[in-house]
Structure formats: structure tokens, C-alpha cells
Here is the input.
Amino acid sequence: MTETPETPSSFEAALAELEEIVGRMEAGDLPLQASLTAYKRGAELLAYCQAALKDAQQQVQVLEKGVLQPFRPDEGDDA
Here is the structure.
């Protein structure tokens, strides 16, 4: 297996690498040690993807709850 960076550059890159690893493992052509290395890398990528998805989900929840509202100057509020 070729050397890959520890942290993927993006969610999409991690997902693509994970799909490649799964494909190679499903083909059954990897020797035992390479399979173990691929499995370990796949687990790392899976954790990265899960964390990225959780972060995105939290951001969506913040937006849905209206915490981030568009700026509206005081409309006729003459205190």
C-alpha cells in the first residue's frame, strides 16, 4: 500500500480513499499484512468522515434553530 497522508484534505477525499480501500479489500487480492494495514487506514478514514458529518450536522442544527439570523437594523424602534 502506498504512503498516504495521515489527515485527508477533505471529506470528499477521505470518502474516495475509503471507497478505494473497500474495493481492494472486497476483491480479495491483498495479502494478510496489506489487508490489516488497509483496514486500519479505513478505520481512520471512517472516523474522519463521521466527525466531519457530525460537525456538518451540528452546523445545520444551529442554522435551523435560527441562532444565526440575518442582520436587520432596528425597524422604527425609536426608544
Q: What stands out?
A: The chain has two helices and no strands. Residues 11-64 form a domain with the Helix Hairpins fold (CATH 1.10.287.1040). Helices lie at 11-27, 32-64.
